[in-house]
Amino acid sequence: MNWKLGPEVLPKSPVLLAGSLCAFAVAMFLRQMMDYSVARSAASSIGAVAVLSAAAFIGASVSGYRERLTQTLCALALTGAVVVFVTALLRFLLVVSLVFADTSEQGLPYVNVMELANFLLFPLFVWNVFVFAALFRRSFRPSVPVSFAIAIPLVMIVDFFVPIAFRSL
Length: 169
Prior knowledge:
Blueprint: H1 14-33, H2 38-63, H3 69-101, H4 110-120, H5 122-140, H6 144-165
Helix pairs in contact: 1-2, 1-3, 2-3, 2-6, 3-4, 3-5, 5-6
């Protein structure tokens, strides 16, 4: 990632925005499907899109850079989709390889396999925080600590708290 480029290089296109948000929703849905039901995964992915959109809208409103909202939201959704899709793909490959690589009769419990996969993929979670912080920094011009203060809770809410909100599904 080139830290000198920001969302301003993207066109202000409603079609690109819709496609970006759909890509983010699909990536979140695929990631959530590994742990939850179809209904909960769909609701969580829509909730994640709503939280991401709200964070971008609030950031644009507070900073006074509302003209950058479309581009920023496109960049957040596209980069988030890439990170989440790569995470889901690697998690799937790790789980499959760990489950089938164990040749003992009892095998590893599924919970341990999932915990190990989550532990090994934690750097991608941290990378997502850095990418979101860089995008907020380039878009709305807050200081570096403020960018991280926005990005850390945003990633945690999208990845952890939104699925918890739909646990009844």
